[in-house]
Amino acid sequence: MAQRKTTKAKARAKAPAKAPAAKAAPAAAPRPDKPYDLKQWGRYTLYQCRLCPFNSLHERVLLNHIIQRHAPQPQPTGLFGADGKPLVKED
Fold first, then answer.
1. DSSP state of 82
2. Exposure letters 42-69 (e unless 16+ CB within 10 A, then b)
3. How many domains does the chain contain in total?
4. Looking at the domain assignment, is residue 50 inside a domain?
């Protein structure tokens, strides 16, 4: 006696073949308009600092890093204000 197909087997036979999963487009590495590079880490976009080995999955985190670690610091002038605090040169 021949076995009859079950409902699951029938559903699988009728279902169209799955299309291959679309691969994420590779991120453009150097971006001259931005202070970071983009890399792929698995299926995630990785934001990588150009000035040090720091990287993040979030653009805002990387931009905060660049501001805090790599922004030019005010230069002391050697002069002191009326309140006794050193005066700094700002660009």
1. T
2. eeeebbbbeeeebbbeeeeebbebbeee
3. 1
4. yes
